[in-house]
Amino acid sequence: MQNDYDVLIVGGGLAGNCLALALKDSGMRIAVIEANTRQTLKTSPAGDRALALSAGTVTMLQALDIWSGIADKATAIKQIHISDQGHFGKARLSAKKQGVDALGYVISARDIESHVAELVERAEIEQFCPARVVGLMSGLQTVNVSLKQHEQSLNLSARLLVGADGGQSSVRSLLEIAQQKTEYGQTALVTTVKSSLPHKNVAYERFTSSGPLAMLPLNAEECSVVWTRSHEEAEQLMALNETEFTEQLQQSFGYHLGRLSLSAPRRAFPLTLIRAESMQQGRTVIIGNAVHQLHPVAGQGFNLGMRDVVQLAEMLQQQWQKQGDLGEKSLLQDYAESRIKDHDHTIGFTDNVVKIFSTDWLPMAAARSIGLAVMDQIPAAKNVLAKHAMGLAGRLPRVGNRG
Ligand SMILES: Cc1cc2nc3c(=O)[nH]c(=O)nc-3n(C[C@H](O)[C@H](O)[C@H](O)COP(=O)(O)OP(=O)(O)OC[C@H]3O[C@@H](n4cnc5c(N)ncnc54)[C@H](O)[C@@H]3O)c2cc1C
Question: pTM for the full model?
Answer without folding.
Answer: 0.90
